[in-house]
Each structure stands twice: as structure tokens, then as C-alpha cells.
Amino acid sequence: MSMQRTEVVVIGSGIGGLCCAALAARAGHEVLVLEAHQHPGGAAHGFQRAGYHFESGPSLWSGLSRWPSTNPLAQILRALDQPLEVMAYREWEVLFPEGDLAIGVGSEGFESVVKSLRGTAVLEEWQRFCQVLQPVAAAADALPLLALPPGADAMGALLKRSGSLLPHLPALRHLSGAFGPLVDRHLQDPFLRHWVDLLCFLISGMPMGQTNAAAMATLFGQWFEPEACLDYPKGGSAAVVEALLQGLQRFGGSLRCGARVREVLMDGDRACGVELSNGERIRAAHVVSNADAWGTARLLPAGVARRWQQKLDSTPACGSFLHLHLGFDASGLDPLPLHQVWVGDWERSIDADQNTAVISIPSVLDPGMAPPGHHVLHAYTPASEPWDRWADLDPGSADYTQLKHERCQVFWSLLERKIPDLRERCQVVMEGTPLTHRHFLNVHQGSYGPALSAAKGLFPGVTTPVKGLLRCGASTFPGIGIPPVAASGAMAAHAIAGPAAQKQLLETLRI
Ligand SMILES: Cc1cc2nc3c(=O)[nH]c(=O)nc-3n(C[C@H](O)[C@H](O)[C@H](O)COP(=O)(O)OP(=O)(O)OC[C@H]3O[C@@H](n4cnc5c(N)ncnc54)[C@H](O)[C@@H]3O)c2cc1C
Fold first, then answer.
1. 408 pocket-lining for ligand 1 (C-beta < 6 Å)
2. What is the per-residue DSSP string for 122-136?
3. Given pLDDT bands bounded at 50, 70 and 90, which one contains residue 176?
4. What is the Å distance from ligand 1's center to 44 Cα?
5. Domain boundary, last residue among 183, 202, 223
6. How much is the average pLDDT of 208-219?
């Protein structure tokens, strides 16, 4: 049997993998993406049941509805000439121990909540903190992630690149560390500290002491913009995945779903292709793994870069998820919020299990996501469901089903506060556990990603000790979340296409 050959093989079609693949194809390389699942997109894949469009992961998007944008995903879609239809919105709801509150996106919206809950002195404390953050946010903005070179000392290289960074030098020192020390220095009020801790947790899966300051500064930077808003892609995350795929295909690249890679093939000390679980072998000059740290370790033959494999395999993991997916009849209901974030008890730590939940009803903004008069809902407990509770259970067993119903009651109790007859309204009900999450997203222990503390350093870069092998995605710099994984995909593409292609890309984007 003749062996298929291509220049670049990307293992996994997460947002990181697709960004890498599409940019490498744009730079003239022959690219094949291999995806184990039937749907592309990884954590951001969409799926359909009974006329509903369900989301498996991300619900909070930003920086996609306008240009220029500092969001690496927006920049990549632009470079691929793949416009995305995006709907902007300006309010979300929080269900806090203090009460249910609608919070406007942007400085003013939050300030009015702080003033009414905590009074003028605390409002002033918040405003002073925001002033401290502004130069840090501006410094983060001045460091376009797509301009970073793959592998090398990114920050140092960037400082050399551009005189425009000089005014930001005093603030730059904050960016590579954790956000916690900045907060500790400037915020005393418990509500403000809880709020920042929650935002950190939603971004990184870890509390503020471990969350990267650059990521938080970027988030606050967007809030300081006069017309601050959040975005939702029309058609959900599947539409983003489709846009990246179209970009890939337009430049001659291709995707195969249902193609699980079993092993990276080696030619001496160099990766030279992959073997699929059906035994098929594909040769390639460059292999890029978009699998997570643990999955990548398992793809390497025993003995190859042994110490690095062990390091990948012993990466600490964030917690996992419970999910609830519903399709329900909305007739006679008051208007529902697009997003709600619930916190049960501030005195428990923000990452404690069953203490936070995110509820997203995309059909509120995009009616096409559900049949007429109906809503589609995705609720999840972010990065806080302990894997150990589930690790040894058989998904076919009665114990598993019982525990699933018990644990998912947290969602029903919350939702029934607003819609008491919700269960009777439902046409589709799917409860998911860490085992479901691991099965469909192919991630270690159903985890959100590596629990690498920003207090200890940055995430590892996209280059590896194995020649011909690169990585991208949530296990690599700059970390977890859609904008970071898009940036890591770009960095892996730069490593393949070289500095001239990277320069051309930056010139096209004028960044
Ligand atoms: C419930 C949830 C909510 C989230 N909410 C947000 C949010 O609101 N905003 C935000 O910015 N981020 C959010 N995130 C985070 C964000 O979605 C992820 O960090 C990001 O999508 C991960 O992308 P990735 O490139 O690392 O690839 P992944 O999504 O991890 O995809 C990797 C792909 O590789 C495939 N794969 C793995 N091994 C193999 C193999 N051996 N062979 C072939 N294929 C393989 C997998 O099947 C998968 O498709 C959320 C995540 C989750 C789970």
C-alpha cells in the first residue's frame, strides 16, 4: 500500500489546530487536519438534535464584531478573508449571593452595580484600580500575539521589534506574572475581590493568584473601550469552526473527521508522520499536535524525548465539567437573558465544586439556533467538577446514571427558579459528566486544560524537543480560551512558514 504524503499534518481540529492549519495553508503549504471526532472544532464544536443547534463549549466571545481588533481569532479570520456574522450585546446577568443583577458590559455598567451594592467609597476604590490597570491593559494591547516569534524568548524579542513598546515599559513587567498581586495591592473590598476572582476563574480555570495578568489586562482593556460589548457568532461556535475550515480549504488544505491518530512516526530523532488507529500511515515534513499535553505524550513512541514526555504527562489538570443541554418550548415565558453566571457562596473558594455555573441561551440572540418559539440552553459548571468522583464509574451503570442526575440537579434548581415547569417544556434533555466531556472533546480527565500557575511562569511554547513536531492549543502559550489558542495556532504556523511569511501576514493585517 502506498503511503499518503503531505507537508503538514495537524492532529486535532480544535480552534488552535484549525488556525495553525489555515495559516500554514495560506502561506502555501499542503496541509491535512486529522480529527478523531465526527465533528470538527474540539471544545468549540456544535451539534444538532431535533432542530436545535447545541454548543459544547465557549459561550463568551469578544473582539469579533469590529476591526481593528486585538483578538487573534479576529485577526486570523481577517487574514483568511473569512468574514463572520457576529451579533453584539451589552448586558449579562449574574446570580450572586447579593441577589440577581443585570450587569452592563463595560465600565459604566459595572460601576453602577458597585455603587448601588457597596456605596461611593467602594466605587472609588474600583475606579482607582481601573486607573492602575489602564497602562497594563495598554501594554498588553501593544504586544500583538501574532507578532510573537515561535519558541524563543517572546517578550524579549518583541521588545526589540518595536519602538512603540517603549512607553509601555513600566507596565510590561506585570504582564508575565499572576494577576493576584496587583489585586492584593489595590483592592480591599470583599465584593470587588470576589468579582475579580470570578472573572479570573472564568478565564483560566484558576483563582486570581494563578491567573495570568496579561490575559486579565486584555479583558479589562476591552471593558474600558467606549462602546464595549460582547459578541456572539451567528450560528454559534460551529460558525466559527466553519469559517476557519473554509479558509483552510480555500488555500488547498483539507480535513478528515473520524481519523484518530494513534502514534507519531519517527525517522531517527525526527517526527516524520502519523499512524491512524486503523493502521493507515501518513508521512509529513511537519507534525503539529493540537491534542492536549497528556494526549500528546501518549502519541509519542516510548523512549522518544523521555523526560519531556514525562513532564507533559505529569502536567497538573484543571477540574472538569458537568453539562446540561436543553431544547425547550418558550411559549408564554418572559424574555430570558442570553447569559447568566451563578455563584453560590463567596466564602467557599471560587473553584469549589458546585459553587459556580454558567447558563447560556444563544437562541435569545440568534433565534435560528432553535425551532420557532423554542430555546436552546447550555449550562455548565466550569472547571470545578472533580474527576476522581467519576474516574472509576462505568457510563452504562445504574450508579453512574444516579450520580449524574444527582449532580446535575444543581442546574435544575437554578433554572426552575425562573421557569418552574421547565422539565415539562423540554423536548431534548442531555446531562453530561466529566466522562461525557472526555469522550466528545478528547481531553484528559475531561479537564479544562493544564492548571499551570501564572505565579510560576508562562505556559510552554509551541516548539518541542522533537524535531519536526510542534504543538498548539490550550496546553501551550498563551493558554486556555479561544483568543489564546488561536494565537498558539498562529505561532505554530509561523514556525512552519518562517519569518518572511509571518512578516507578510503582519503587514496584511497592519499590526
Ligand atoms: C464548557 C466550556 C466552556 C468554555 N467557554 C469559553 C468561553 O466562553 N470563552 C473562551 O474564550 N473559551 C472558552 N472555553 C475554552 C475554549 O473553548 C478552549 O480553550 C479551546 O476551544 C481549546 O482549543 P484547542 O485548540 O486547545 O483544542 P481542543 O478544543 O482541545 O481540540 C483538540 C481536538 O483534537 C482532537 N484530538 C485529540 N487527540 C486526537 C488524536 N489522537 N487524533 C485526532 N484528533 C485528536 C480532539 O478530538 C479535539 O477535537 C470553554 C471551554 C469549555 C470546555
1. no
2. HHHHHHHHHHHHHHH
3. confident
4. 6
5. 223
6. 91
Ligand 1 atom nearest to CA at 448: 53
* Beta carbons within 8 Å of 341's beta carbon, 6+ residues apart: 92, 93, 94, 95, 198, 202, 356, 357, 358, 359
Q: How far is the CA of 238 from the centre of ligand 1 (A)?
A: 13
Verify that 295 and 196 share a domain, yes or no: no
Residue 238 included in any domain: yes
Which positions ≥6 away from 166 have C-beta within 8 Å?
none
C-alpha cell at 131: 486607573
Cβ partners under 8 Å of residue 165, min gap 6: 139, 142, 143, 158, 159, 172
193 and 298 belong to one structural domain: no
Q: Is 43 in the pocket of ligand 1 (CB under 6 A)?
A: yes
Q: Is 17 in the pocket of ligand 1 (CB under 6 A)?
A: yes
Map residue 61 onto helix, strand or coil. strand
Span 380-399, average pLDDT: 98
Cβ–ligand 1 contact at 418 (below 6 Å) = no
Say how many domains are in the chain. Answer: 3
Atom from ligand 1 closest to the CA of residue 323: 1
